[in-house]
Design goal:
Elements (H helix, E strand, L loop, with lengths): L14 H9 L3 H14 L4 E12 L2 E9 L6 H8 L6 H5 L19 H6 E9 L2 H6 L3 H5 L4 H8 L2 E8 L18 E4 L13 E9 L2 H5 L1 H11 L14 E6 L2 E4 L5 H7 L2 E7 L6 E8 L1 H17 L3 E3 L3 H15 L1 E7 L3 H7 L10 E3 L10 E3 L5 E7 L10 H10 L1 E6 L2 E2 L13 H7 L10 E6 L3 H6 L13 H28 L5 H4 L7 E4 L2 E5 L3 H25 L5 H79 L6 H21 L7 H4 L2 E5 H9 L6 E2 L2 E2 L1 E6 L3 E5 H21 L6 E7 L4 E6 L29 H10 L4 E4 L12 E4 L4
Parallel strand pairs: 1-7, 16-18, 24-26
Antiparallel strand pairs: 1-2, 2-6, 3-4, 3-6, 4-5, 7-8, 9-10, 9-15, 10-12, 11-20, 13-14, 15-18, 16-17, 19-20, 21-25, 22-23, 26-27, 27-29, 28-29
Helix pairs in contact: 20-21, 21-22, 25-26
């Protein structure tokens, strides 16, 4: 028998690269991890320089991250920075020593962001001696008992080391076999750091792995809108942590929002607060500004005037009294929701949904039969601000511009954003869905901004972030927190707003059309009176004047004493009056005709209501499909990683097919989901001919039923700026339309042509079918125009094409050129000169 053998668990050095790719989702998230580290180190400033044109022995591109934080000594470098997945920060630096900041990271994987970003790094660091002097447990945190000795070692010393990540990608190499050299050098003030302080950390990354990522036209805008929004723009000035990013000469700086400006210009603001303790009470308070009342009153007066022909007759005093009532009774609303159990929520508000919450039986309650307690996070709070964009009189262009820059209700932990909650494409509170399925309220995705805070040590433990930093872990606490925000906080404020809107609603509007002249009604404590109808006024005046005109005519015809000139004038007046009377009668008949046309139009719209309803359902469904598509793509990515060494090609091809189909499905679904609109607005410079050929030559859309259509591309290439996804969807719609009709009419040798004409920056798209039916050619780009059977088309395809092209300044028109069937057949897309 062989003797027992002692074994070790070893780790191949390539695990560093694998972990970096798996745990850090993309370059942007990697950058955010480094910003977090700077904050955890008590930095006041963090600057990031990205130079995509820089050349070095390690490849193209350079990034420099510099902060004025606490810095490190050799003990921290070895036991914290260079030890992956260490609990050093969690155990020793949970609260930062200088500013008392709660540490953002505690998994010990943040430095893997450095591997994700580039091929080589060099780090320089200098310890802050002021921090050492305040520290009690020196040995545990700095590896040195004697403070004098520690100061003596570090006061004039800069530490540095380099890592070539390529060394960790070699075969048959263990992590521990790769040695790093820690260098000591004399620290010269105002030499090492651009911030000119005597402490901090500087990291230089060479050979950027995501060079093309940083070169994208859209990334600069993302850095401005998202990376710098990563720091809570509503935090107090005293927190004073600032970030600047310089990407190839374009510099962006984090800025604080003017909270007073947001409060004063918003129409409605909601404050909510849950304090973790025995009471378990959630407080929701809505405050409405005077501007909101002004907007509501202006809207009701305009509607009463234009839609129902009523005038406001309230006196100035009565109007003032109405506003006093609004201020007293409607300016504030409050609700308190008891979160101790499911039953206590129902008791607080029976209309709230509770079936989705995860619960447990409380062992401290004697009667456990009906006590379903919620898994509750620690304390959380926030503010949500809403605006009405309907009227230029109630909101200025400056406010609109500022609002567009801060749209979204963002989630922050200790003043750092948790992605993706609050991105303009992530409606995590489902504001859009509510406004589609319920009566519309002021809190909509495009009119709302705000902040949700989950600060504190308890939430650091309970509300965990996914390892790839793309959301909260959906365990008992993470799941319930999202339900609390969506189904409790938002639903409470939504119902308060719905009740408020109801007060300003014009009740029984159809009945107002039947009110007689002078009849009065009251809405929102304002009095209105039905004005006279112009046609009725005219008829009354005609009836008043007619006897006089008739009398004058009779006198003129029968009197011998009236001069001929006067008699002629009276005759002219009589004829003019007759013409006026006839015009009045004609106008009345035309009005009756118009009313009949309106009635027919209303009947037509009633027929369209099922389609409109289906569209709303489709948009909601599209939102869910997009969400699930992202999940499926993530699952496929994970499966592919696990299959790297698997030889089963059938499984690999199947996974790739799933990914391809999901991308195709996502692209089409995005057009139905208005909340994904901003995802498509990413401008790119494209070689149009090359892009189109590459896209269409692999398209499955040229086969329809039993027809295979041949693609023919001609002309010369030219560059243009566009939203690529929008262009692709537009092209796909054109192909789908052509293949349908080519198959329908059984065209021999079916062809789809695209001709590129750079001189006029246009492309021509046509097929060899019979062309456009003359019955629809004048309204071809309008919605719901089609000559397909109802079950095969809704007439939205070309309307969608036109809308998508207009997003980036392109136009589409039908050429007047005729084909051999004497029909219009050719579409011309013209691109802007940018």
């Amino acid at each position: 028998m062989n003797p027992d053998k002692s074994l070790n668990l070893t780790i191949d050095s390539r695990i560093i690269s694998h972990l970096g790719e798996a745990l850090i989702d993309n370059e942007k998230i990697a950058l955010l991890e480094l910003i977090k580290n700077a904050s955890d180190a008590d930095a006041l400033n963090c600057s990031i320089l990205i130079d995509t044109g820089y050349n070095s022995d390690f490849g193209k591109g350079r990034m420099v991250i510099e902060d004025d934080g606490n810095g490190m000594n050799p003990y921290i470098i070895e036991n914290a920075f260079l030890k992956i997945a260490t609990s050093f920060k969690k155990n020793n630096q949970k609260i930062s020593p200088k500013f008392g900041r709660i540490a953002q990271g505690n998994k010990g994987i943040g430095r893997l962001a450095l591997n994700q970003l580039g091929n080589h790094l060099k780090l320089w660091t200098k310890l802050d001696l002021e921090v050492i002097e305040k520290e009690k447990d020196l040995e545990k945190k700095y590896g040195e008992k004697d403070i004098s000795r520690l100061i003596e070692k570090t006061k004039d010393t800069m530490y540095s080391f380099s890592i070539n990540w390529k060394d960790y990608e070699k075969d048959d190499t263990k992590v521990e076999d790769i040695k790093l050299n820690l260098e000591y050098s004399e620290f010269v003030p105002k030499k090492f750091f651009s911030h000119r302080k005597s402490h901090g950390t500087r990291i230089e990354i060479l050979g950027l792995k995501g060079l093309e990522f940083w070169k994208k036209n859209s990334i600069a805008k993302e850095l401005e809108n998202e990376v710098l929004a990563f720091i809570n723009p509503y935090l107090d000035e005293k927190y004073n942590f600032k970030v600047s990013v310089n990407l190839d000469g374009n510099e962006f700086r984090s800025e604080l929002n003017d909270k007073d400006f947001v409060k004063q210009t918003s129409f409605s603001q909601t404050h909510f607060n849950f304090v973790d303790g025995n009471e378990k009470k959630l407080f929701v308070k809505v405050i409405r500004n005077r501007k909101y009342f002004d907007s509501k009153v202006a809207s009701i007066i305009k509607k009463m005037n234009s839609a129902y022909e009523f005038d406001l007759i309230s006196t100035e005093k009565e109007i003032e009294e109405a506003f006093e009532y609004y201020q007293k009774e409607l300016s504030k609303d409050e609700r308190v929701i008891d979160l101790k159990s499911i039953q206590s929520i129902v008791n607080s508000d029976p209309s709230l949904k509770t079936e989705n919450f995860l619960t447990f039986k409380n062992p401290n309650i004697e009667d456990k039969s009906n006590i379903d307690c919620l898994y509750l996070p620690g304390s959380f709070s926030g503010e949500i601000y809403a605006y009405s964009l309907a009227s230029k009189e109630t909101i200025t262009e400056e406010t609109r511009k500022k609002l567009n820059a801060i749209l979204g209700i963002k989630l922050y932990r200790n003043n750092f954003m948790i992605y993706p909650y609050g991105n303009q494409s992530n409606d995590w509170l489902e504001l859009g869905k509510y406004n589609q399925t319920q009566n519309s309220i002021i809190y909509k995705p495009h009119t709302t901004t705000g902040v949700v805070r989950i600060d504190g040590e308890k939430n650091l433990e309970l509300l965990k972030e996914l390892t790839n930093r793309q959301g909260l872990v959906q365990d008992n606490y993470g799941t319930n927190f999202l339900y609390l925000m969506r189904d409790i906080v938002f639903k409470v404020l939504a119902r308060l707003e719905a009740n408020f809107d109801d007060f300003f609603e014009i009740k029984n509007g159809k009945e107002l059309y039947d009110y007689e002249e002078g009849a009065q009604c009251t809405f929102a404590n304002l009095k209105f009176a039905r004005r006279s109808k112009p046609i009725e006024d005219a008829k009354r005046e005609v009836n008043k004047v007619r006897p006089t005109v008739v009398s004058l005519s009779e006198v003129a015809n029968n009197s011998l004493f009236i001069e001929p000139e006067v008699a002629t004038d009276i005759e002219k007046i009589s004829k003019a009056f007759e013409r006026f009377e006839n015009s009045t009668s004609r106008f009345e008949r035309q009005l009756e005709t118009k009313n009949e046309q309106i009635k027919q139009q209303n009947d037509y719209f009633e027929e369209l209501m099922p389609i409109i309803g289906s569209s709303i359902v489709s948009e909601t469904l599209a939102h869910e499909i997009l969400r699930l598509s992202v999940n499926v793509q993530r699952y496929c990515m994970e499966i592919r990683r696990r299959l790297e060494k698997n030889k089963d090609e059938v499984i690999k091809r199947s996974v790739m097919s799933i990914e391809s189909d999901i991308k195709f499905l996502t692209r089409y679904t995005s057009i139905l989901d208005t909340n994904s609109y901003s995802r498509r607005r990413r401008y790119e410079h494209c070689n149009l001919l090359e892009t189109t050929k590459k896209f269409l030559e692999t398209s499955p859309l040229f086969s329809y039923k039993n027809t295979d259509v041949i693609l023919e591309v001609s002309g010369e290439e030219f560059e243009t700026k566009m939203i690529l996804d929008s262009y692709k969807i537009a092209l796909e719609n054109m192909v789908i339309n052509s293949t349908y009709w080519l198959d329908k009419f059984n065209i021999d040798n079916p062809r789809f042509y695209i001709k590129f004409i750079p001189a006029t920056r246009r492309i021509e798209i046509f097929d060899n079918g019979i062309g456009i039916d003359e019955r629809v050619r004048d309204t071809l780009f309008e919605p719901f125009v089609t000559n397909k059977p109802l079950e095969e088309g809704r007439g939205m395809g070309l309307y969608i094409v036109k809308s998508l092209l207009e997003e980036f300044g392109a136009t589409i028109a039908l050429s007047s050129e005729l084909n051999k069937y004497d029909n219009y057949y050719k579409f011309v897309i013209k691109f802007s000169g940018e």
